[in-house]
UniProtKB/TrEMBL annotation:
Residues 14-67 form the HTH cro/C1-type domain. It comes from Streptomyces fodineus. InterPro entries: Cro/C1-type_HTH, Lambda_DNA-bd_dom_sf, TPR-like_helical_dom_sf, TPR_rpt. This is Transcriptional regulator. PROSITE patterns: HTH_CROC1. Residues 256-316 form a coiled coil.
Length: 447
């Protein structure tokens, strides 16, 4: 509880409540205190002890906190109920509506000194901002949530750390996102803070950045740990998110059937929880599985469903990322014109600070479509833009593939030296497949 208000404030509060209830100072004081003591307290000339204030609160029929700090009875419980409702609204894909609710709850919690509820509201604001693609704002909310939880244990602070890491990841800052997640995992495991929910959240969240950086070995290990932790986790939403993330590593290893089974489990959990955005992401990942298995028609259906659901939920950045994946499948199915229109429509949602990896993927695919149309100038421009975005993000595997495409284009147009430079750059990123320049892997959980 926050520090008690000044004696003058407490005194005025006692007097107002006493008058509202039609009590005399004697009736309020008896049997433990005198009318003179109540008069002195109401005038603000004495600081009541906790014992005295609890006696007076009992006579007035209010909670001790209402007298001490002006906090209405049951406010904390009411705030938690409303936070749960805001979480449901966010899970239903109505991020903007949820943000309005979270903002009001944060202000109310701050006014009454409820730090835990204020942190929960800030986390909700951060998640809402991630949904709408406002990454800088999301990062600020998560940082403020961490500040509110500064005196709490590390497992309690993990959701805020993870949110901050995801905001950096979506902005294309892969290495910093991995640093945040790995260092927190290391602190938890080395410090013996083996909280299953916290560990599962971190391991599930680090898989995406690992995959985009080409660190497939670490991604596979994180997936293994996440699967081992899942039976101990209390939060079904976390388990569902874990299954979706693990599917990425299974795809990379060619274990398509297992990936599809993992995503089916996630989809069922999300249906039960009504987490529309996460369910849309699950359809998105199932589209990935279908592409790997050569089922392009089914992949298109899954990705169209993901794109439609994310459009309904107004999750702008995620919708645009799904659009890039859908465009890739459309191109493979000889629907290049539709793919190009889709890509041009979402490119404005990306930048070097916002969805850089998918922005690069969009430019790469537009380059390929331009090459097919014999427009080598446009193709080269798209490849160069993609290269710039990927170098900033540190996505090694994608960089190598793009350098090959650019090198082939330059060679076909007679620029041999420039082509060789592009190939050399690509080879530099292929020298150690599946590895990164990251430091030692974090300590392992005691599974």
């Amino acid at each position: 509880m926050r520090e008690r208000d000044d004696p003058e404030v407490v005194g005025r509060r006692v007097q107002q409540l006493r008058i509202q209830r039609g009590l005399t100072q004697r009736q309020l004081a008896e049997p433990a205190y005198t009318p003179a003591y109540i008069s002195t307290l109401e005038a603000g000339r004495v600081r009541a002890s906790d014992v005295a204030l609890r006696h007076i609160a009992g006579r007035l029929g209010v909670a001790f906190e209402e007298l001490a700090v002006g906090r209405p009875a049951h406010l904390a419980t009411d705030l938690r109920l409303r936070l749960t409702e805001a979480q449901r609204v966010l899970a239903d894909g109505r991020a903007e509506e949820a943000a309005v609710q979270y903002a009001a709850l944060r202000e109310e919690a701050e006014t009454h000194g409820l730090g835990g509820e204020q942190a929960s509201a800030l986390l909700g604001l951060g998640e809402s901002a991630l949904e709408t693609g406002e990454l800088a704002k999301a990062r600020e909310f998560f940082e403020r949530a961490e500040d509110c939880l500064a005196d709490q244990s590390l497992p309690v602070r993990v959701p805020a750390v993870r949110g901050r890491a995801v905001s950096h990841y979506l902005a294309g800052e892969l290495r910093y996102a991995v640093y945040l997640l790995e260092s927190t995992l290391d602190d938890l495991n080395r410090g013996g803070l083996h909280d299953p929910d916290a560990l599962l959240l971190l391991y599930a969240s680090v898989i995406g950045p690992y995959m985009d950086m080409g660190a497939h070995a670490r991604a596979a290990q994180a997936a293994e740990f996440a699967l081992a932790l899942a039976p101990r986790a209390a939060d079904p939403a976390l388990i569902a998110r874990m299954h979706r993330s693990v599917a990425r590593t299974l795809i990379a290893e060619g274990r398509v059937a297992e990936a599809d089974a993992s995503l089916a489990k996630a989809a069922e959990l999300y249906r039960q929880l009504q987490l529309r955005t996460e369910l849309a992401n699950c359809h998105w990942m199932r589209g990935y599985v279908c592409v790997q298995n050569g089922e392009l028609e089914r992949a298109e259906a899954e990705l169209r469903q993901a794109y439609a659901m994310l459009s309904e939920s107004r999750a702008a950045l995620y919708r645009s990322q799904a659009a890039v994946e859908l465009a890739d499948v459309l191109h493979r199915r000889a629907k290049s014109e539709e793919a190009a229109v889709l890509l041009e429509g979402v490119l404005g949602d990306f930048s070097s600070e916002r969805g850089a990896v998918h922005a690069a993927a969009a430019h790469r695919l537009l380059g390929i479509i331009a090459e097919d149309a014999r427009d080598t100038e446009a193709a080269e421009e798209h490849y160069v833009r993609a290269l710039s975005l990927l170098e900033r993000a540190g996505a090694a595997g994608d960089l190598a593939d793009l350098c090959r495409l650019l090198g082939d284009l330059l060679r076909r147009t007679g620029r041999i030296e420039a082509a060789l430079d592009a190939y050399r750059t690509g080879l530099g990123h292929r020298t150690a497949p599946g590895t990164t320049t990251l430091g030692p892997a974090p300590a392992q959980p005691p599974l």
